[in-house]
Design brief:
3-stranded antiparallel sheet, 3-stranded mixed sheet, mainly alpha, 1052 residues, 16 strands
Length: 1052
């Protein structure tokens, strides 16, 4: 048999043979003349026993022991030998193990070793654990050689593994009939196993070089398959061991905290997603802490922080170290775990890497979720402890919200946990919410809005009331909170309610990485363009530096993208948001929801008080999640599930256009951005590309409330500027860009087109109302935007043209290198801004063209007709007149500059509205830009871009009509040219049609002019005081004078 020595002893195999005569020198004589062996082999009729020397020597001597040394085994000895595989070497009889370790035992009066007994077992086992291993091998007496078995369990050198094996054997024998009446023996052996296990964990130094704590970890890992069996030996062993430790205060922490420290250090310094097996093994070990409440308490106690407000301290805990396992870079300088050669990766290689990341990341998060959720289930105290850790962590890291808009160097602030940590925390909490992440689930009724304003003052109150999400009372709600909107608090809040608000807090922090990705994506686009520009012109050193930076940014982007798009995180977060949406639309209808009735629009005028409790970031969480799904190629998760789409659209319809339910117009505009993400994409030929399922088109046609979409969309379009909230131009136009795309798509759907046309008819009917009609305000803003955007775009094209001429003339080459780089940077910035303005101008003018196809009366009304005519004339002059040469940049495609398309859209608007004589007179009356030559030049452009001959013929007919009307218009203008100043509008300088007096400035102004002004600015243009149309006073006397004077002039 092969005997394994303890550490420090050279192992080897025992010599085979049976030479009693060689043992003469290895014995001593007792007082009664008997020979007592020191290191001996004893062979009787049934067994051969070999004892290995304590120090290995090349010579192995054995001798036969006579029958006088044999003692018949007892039940007690038999049970002990079978459990511990130790022997005093004298027992004979049936049922003894084949292989044992020799241990010294008490001797009788003749010095002969006695049988093993419970009384001295503790010392014998302790000797077995400490001594060098001496193996007793038993085999038939007539065997010439000792049987060798190198896998014998009796010579196990690992202390903890040996004790567990003893426990397994004890557990097996414990149920045998022959030992039933020996309860004291059975319990005594079990206690000795557990006491020794506890001792080796408490005082590992006693066992020399053996690392008993790591042995224990390895033991649990080795037994992980058996661990899944709730009745398995390893679970029973741990459970019994813990029970024995619980009676000794501090013992559990003393034994298990060092193990947790070892694993924590592995996660902090060694583990990453590439060594998934090692991570899996250690996560398997941590499962033991969900077996009993006391173990859960030990685990959570180990994860406590000295300073709960120190945000970065959380990722130094064991829970935090596991959460930190994520491909997101910890710094903008790296290191980057994957995609390091991003420029050389094929799409197939990149996809394979992403799949690898997703698989391993999912395993880490799922294991941690099971661990924490298992601890939560152990007791209410542990539920409080886990939720308290989450709540404090989120509160400490709230400052991370302010980093997304910072410069790159500040984005990775060392004061806060990493992006990967926060995303993984989102994943854990989102998974905790999955049982109620089902739209209209009855479990959602457990979520109480009053939770957000409960402020427990002590830890005891936090535990009693169950409110662990901190700071919600400081968040801006859907509608302002006042004493009148107060609702009652619950005595205790449900676990579901806690998870709901904690998860939303986590998502708010974790998904801010989206802003980094958007910025980084833009930077990569610019860097790629720069790389292509310089690779053939600049020295290799410069090109390599740019390439290195480009590779770094792509690597950075891909690692973050892989983390945020992990399938299970995305799917669970989507489920959670849609369930939230189904809950929110009910809160918009009632303070206390007890069921989920069908939503009906319009909502009642009564605004539920609960909306003053719900933080508005719950909606931005959804928009920040939904909007980038298309960029991340994950939009199919939303589009393939029609039921999810329906709930999403319901949320849009309830809140996007309803200021009484969601005051912040900025957030309502973000809902439009989210809606745009599901709208099909328009192709260059004007067709639309839908998903394979076609669900997005179906839901925009068939949703029960979809007829309200157009009005909702126009409401939010207008409200961005009409609420007095500060929204910068770039953000405003980004929002409206999404709205333009939606309008352009739904215009092709009859139900939406009819709804828009109805709004236009209502606007004409109510145009003189105190509150300007919605559609009137909408088209006024369209015209404002068109003028601003196209004017800005043309100015940028002009500046770029000037710079290109300077560069091509060689003037730049005369400048110092630094100034040359400044020039290049300036042109790139101009190009970026010009491109953005062109894109927005193209969208805005196309929307105007689209609407004017079938809506004309409102454009031709006196309130709007001069504005639309003046805009068209102004831009036609710039795009086809003498000034067009100022905008001829080299690469119009690069800047999305499409003058021919804009001319075509403008020409179509002229033609659509040209059927109205009032419009035609307005075109002629705007003499600063209009000339008949412009129409001829426009025809040339239209022919160049392939507009149909039929359209060109109609456009030329309009030109003829304008020439005919021009004579009458000029004659009238000449007759009325000498009007008294008091008859002229003080702003436009034109003859007033319907003069009114303003209340604060007492200025008299034309009704149409002030009405148009108030569409954009609700203040007196002369005093800046608040003003509305119901505050103006008709100046009937002046109107009568003007009418009389005009009639008299024209009659002559």
């Amino acid at each position: 048999m092969g005997s394994s020595a303890s550490k420090g002893q050279t192992p080897g195999s025992i010599a085979r043979g049976n030479r009693a005569d060689n043992n003469a020198n290895n014995s001593q004589t007792t007082g009664n003349g008997r020979v007592r062996p020191e290191k001996e082999v004893s062979i009787n009729k049934k067994y051969t026993t070999a004892v290995s020397p304590s120090k290995w020597s090349g010579k192995k001597d054995y001798r036969r022991r006579g029958e006088e040394f044999e003692l018949p085994t007892t039940t007690e000895n038999k049970f002990i030998e079978q459990v511990f595989l130790i022997s005093s070497g004298v027992a004979v009889g049936d049922g003894l193990p084949e292989l044992c370790i020799f241990v010294d035992s008490p001797t009788d009066k003749y010095g002969i070793h006695t049988l093993l007994s419970l009384d001295t077992l503790h010392e014998r086992v302790f000797d077995r654990l400490l001594s060098n291993l001496r193996v007793i091998v038993k085999s038939p007496a007539d065997s010439n050689f000792l049987k060798q078995d190198s896998n014998a369990t009796c010579d196990e050198t690992s202390v903890t593994k040996y004790l567990f094996q003893c426990y397994v054997r004890w557990r097996s024998l414990n149920s045998e009939e022959m030992f039933r009446d020996y309860s004291m023996l059975r319990n005594g052996c079990k206690d000795i196993i557990l006491q020794n296990t506890k001792s080796c964990l408490q005082a590992p130094d006693i066992y020399g070089n053996q690392n008993t704590k790591e042995q224990f970890i390895d033991l649990i890992i080795e037994q992980k398959e058996d661990y899944n069996d709730v009745n398995g030996a390893i679970r029973s062993f741990i459970s019994d061991l813990v029970i024995s430790m619980e009676s000794q205060p501090g013992c559990l922490a003393e034994c298990f905290h060092p193990m947790l420290s070892f694993i924590r250090q592995q996660f902090l310094t060694v583990h990453n997603l590439t060594n998934a097996t090692a991570i899996s093994n250690h996560m398997d070990f941590l499962r033991i802490f969900v077996l009993k409440p006391s173990l859960g308490e030990v685990f959570m106690e180990y994860n406590e922080l000295q300073d709960w407000t120190a945000a970065r301290s959380y990722d130094a805990t064991l829970i935090g170290a596991i959460l930190d396992i994520n491909p997101c870079p910890k710094s903008n300088k790296g290191p980057y775990e994957f995609f390091n050669n991003s420029l050389d990766l094929t799409p197939s290689e990149a996809n394979s890497t992403i799949v690898f990341i997703w698989q391993n990341l999912n395993e880490v998060c799922y294991s941690l979720y099971n661990l924490l959720m298992g601890i939560v289930r152990l007791s209410s105290t542990l539920r409080h402890t886990v939720l308290n850790w989450f709540g404090r962590c989120l509160e400490a890291n709230r400052g991370k919200l302010d980093l997304w808009s910072a410069h790159e160097a500040e984005v990775f602030d060392v004061k806060y946990c990493s992006d990967g940590f926060c995303l993984n925390l989102c994943r854990i909490l989102a998974q905790m919410c999955q049982p109620f992440s089902i739209p209209n689930s009855e479990k959602l009724l457990k979520i109480k809005p009053s939770y957000t304003r409960v402020i427990p003052k002590t830890e005891v109150q936090i535990k009693e009331v169950c409110v662990h999400a901190r700071g919600l009372d400081n968040e801006t709600p859907f509608v302002p909170y006042t004493e009148d909107t107060e609702i009652g608090e619950e005595e205790q809040y449900h676990f579901i309610c806690e998870c709901f608000f904690l998860t939303h807090q986590a998502l708010r922090i974790g998904y801010n990485i989206v802003f980094k990705l958007i910025k980084l994506n833009s930077s990569i686009s610019r860097m790629k363009k720069l790389y292509e520009e310089i690779r053939e012109q600049y020295p290799k050193r410069v090109v390599d530096l740019v390439k290195q930076q480009l590779n770094k940014e792509i690597c950075w982007y891909l690692n973050m993208k892989a983390a945020i798009t992990e399938y299970h995180l995305t799917k669970m977060t989507l489920n959670f948001h849609i369930a939230t949406a189904s809950w929110l639309v009910q809160i918009a209808q009632s303070d206390d929801i007890t069921e989920f009735p069908e939503v009906k629009l319009p909502l009642s005028d009564h605004v539920p008080k609960a909306l003053s409790y719900i933080p508005q970031f719950i909606v931005t969480n959804l928009t920040h999640f939904i909007t980038p799904l298309e960029m991340f190629k994950s939009i199919s998760l939303l589009l393939t599930d029609y039921d999810i789409l329906q709930h999403f659209i319901t949320l849009i319809l309830v809140f996007m256009g309803n200021r009484s339910r969601l005051v912040n117009s900025d957030i309502r505009a973000q809902l439009a951005e989210a809606l745009e993400s599901i709208v099909p994409v328009m192709n260059d030929d004007g067709t639309w590309t839908t998903s394979k399922s076609g669900n997005e088109e179906k839901v925009l046609k068939e949703h029960p409330l979809i007829k309200h979409l157009s009005e909702t969309l126009l409401n939010v379009f207008v409200s961005i500027e009409m609420t007095g909230q500060n929204v910068d131009d770039e953000k405003k136009f980004n929002y409206r860009r999404s709205m333009h795309k939606i309008i352009q798509y739904i215009w092709r759907i009859p139900i939406h087109k009819d709804a828009i046309k109805d709004l236009a008819k209502k606007a004409v009917a109510d145009i003189n109302n105190t509150d300007p009609p919605l559609f009137l305000r909408f088209i006024n803003l369209l015209i404002n935007d068109s003028i601003f955007l196209l004017d800005e775009a043309l100015d940028h094209m002009r500046q770029i043209k000037v710079q290109e001429i300077e560069r091509d003339s060689g003037e730049w080459h005369k400048l110092p290198p630094e100034q040359q780089r400044d020039k290049e940077t300036g042109v790139r910035h101009l190009g970026m801004m010009g491109r953005y303005r062109n894109i927005m101008a193209n969208h805005t003018i196309y929307t105007l063209e689209l609407l004017s196809r079938e809506i004309r009366d409102i454009f031709c009304h006196s309130v709007m007709v001069d504005r639309i005519a003046g805009m068209l004339n102004y831009f036609l002059e710039h795009l086809v007149g003498p000034k067009q040469k100022d905008y001829k940049v080299k690469d119009r495609k690069e800047y999305e500059f499409k003058p021919e398309q804009v001319v075509s859209d403008i020409a179509h608007i002229y033609l659509y509205l040209g059927k109205n004589d009032h419009f035609c007179r307005a075109v002629l009356g705007e003499s600063r830009s209009f000339s008949h030559q412009l129409f001829a030049q426009a025809v040339t452009v239209l022919k160049k871009i392939g507009v149909s001959p039929e359209f060109i013929d109609k456009f030329e007919q309009l030109s003829v009509k304008l020439q005919t009307l021009e004579g009458d218009t000029k004659r009238e203008a000449e007759v009325l040219a000498d009007a008294p100043d008091e008859y002229l509008d003080p702003i436009m300088g034109t003859l007033m049609e319907d003069p009114v007096t303003l209340p604060t400035s007492h200025t008299t102004i034309d009704r149409a002019v002030i009405a148009r002004h108030l569409l954009s600015d609700q203040r007196d243009p002369f005093t800046n005081m608040p003003l509305s149309m119901d505050m103006v006073t008709p100046n009937n006397d002046l109107k009568q004078k003007i009418d009389t004077w005009k009639l008299d002039k024209l009659s002559h």
